[in-house]
Amino acid sequence: MSASEKGSEALFDLDDLKKNTARLDVSGIDFATFGDQPLSAGGLRCLRYMHDVEYHTVCYMRDLLVTKAHQDHEIASFLTFWCFEEYWHGEAIGQVLKAHEEGAHAERVQPLRARIRRREAFKPWLHSLGSMIAGREWLAVHMTWGAVNEWSTQAGYARLIAAERHPVLTDLLKRIMRQEGRHIDFYATHARAALASSGRAQRLVRFALERAWSPVGAGVMPAEEVDHLTRFLFTGSDGMAAAQRIDRQIDRLPGLGGLSLLERSITARAA
Ligand SMILES: [Fe+2]
Ligand SMILES: [Fe+2]
Asked: DSSP for 104-148?
């Protein structure tokens, strides 16, 4: 039985994903507009971050595939489509950077990968060891972590739309957000099912989030970039309200009430 059949609020359906997975459609997006109507310096800095983190999905997938994830057909299938879609998000955001006469694609990705190569080399070992010790419960950590990160990504794009009020950027990010919505459905469905079936998973996930969670991309990007993105998108009343909405979604997962992950992280970084 798939997680989508087990979950009480199942949203994810693999057949649906197979039908809908696609390279991001950028037809009709006039990237040249950014030449006359550029984004703000702060907004562009957020986009550089988003570009790098979207492209980093293949490395996140590498860490997942050394766990029991590769034994589960539904999860392995999702990861295949997920990585493909995130790749094209990186490509499209790179086109926005290029339109601002900024480096993008390999020009940014290669030096980033070189900079973090030692840390990255360690990660598959860590996740393989975690999976050997904790078994299926380690997968519950990944599924929940993925749900929090996809919720945060979706909210980040919505906040950037609101901050920039740029019609071409809005069009592009809304197209990306539609695909992010399906990623949310997968991770939230699997996280809920894994947590509902095991008190041990709840305790492990809660412990991992409390001790080790940081905003999506924080393990890849420099700390000052994480702080900038946090302040630019998630401070002020609207930003904090968006973060609190994610905290409430986390609260609704079995055994994860009251963590206030996003609010605590933002308060610490904005100080
Ligand atoms: Fe994405
Ligand atoms: Fe995503």
From this structure: -THHHHHHHHHHTHHHHHHHHHHHHHHHHHHTHHHHHHHHHHHHH
